[in-house]
């Protein structure tokens, strides 16, 4: 009991973090499926750009694994629902969007080359 009294602020902080995380999950789940998929696709474009920056060109399978690991960290609840082959298809779509960005946006190209 003394330990609870001595660490009350940690218990309140943990409860607040859990409440905020729970609310974020609730908001995400309550969005329509098309909005969820759109959000994931937008995030995948970001993740593919980050993988391109980190690993460079010519490392396709490594970049796919890199993006998949980022996905598992970002969306752990969805990683059990979306199969790897489904995920790979979503990444292929994101890659075509990323390539279009690299062709049309000089800032993105410079960002990946740094």
Describe this structure in words.
The chain is an all-alpha fold and 114 residues long. It has two domains: 30 residues; 81 residues. The chain is built from seven helices and no strands. The longest helix is centred in the N-terminal third of the chain and has 23 residues. The protein starts with a helix and ends with a helix. The mean pLDDT is 84.
Q: How many strand elements?
A: 0
Query: Which range best describes the helical content: under 10%, 10-25%, 25-40%, 40-55%, 55-70% or over 70%?
Result: over 70%
- Which structural category do the helix and sheet elements fall into? mainly alpha
Secondary-structure element string: HHHHHHH
Mean pLDDT: 84
Domains (count)? 2
Q: Total number of helical segments?
A: 7
Radius of gyration: 19 Å
Morphology? elongated
Biggest sheet, open or closed, and with what strands and sense?
Answer: none
Terminal-residue CA separation: 54 Å
**What is the percentage of strand-forming residues?**
under 5%
Question: Poorly predicted ranges (pLDDT <50, ≥5 residues)?
Answer: none
Question: What keywords describe this structure?
Answer:
single chain; 114 residues; 2 domains; 7 helices
Give a brief rundown of this model.
The protein is mainly α and 114 residues long. 87% of the residues lie in helices and 0% in strands. It has seven helices and no strands.
């Amino acid at each position: 009991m003394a330990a609870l009294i001595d660490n009350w602020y940690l218990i309140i902080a943990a409860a607040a973090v859990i409440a905020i995380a729970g609310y974020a999950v609730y908001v995400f789940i309550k969005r329509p499926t098309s909005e969820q998929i759109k959000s994931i696709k937008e995030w995948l474009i970001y993740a593919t750009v980050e993988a391109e920056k980190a690993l460079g060109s010519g490392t396709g399978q490594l970049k796919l694994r890199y993006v998949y690991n980022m996905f598992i960290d970002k969306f752990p609840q969805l990683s059990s629902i979306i199969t790897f082959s489904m995920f790979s298809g979503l990444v292929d779509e994101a890659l075509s969007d990323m390539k279009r960005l690299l062709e049309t946006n000089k800032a993105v190209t410079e960002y990946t080359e740094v």
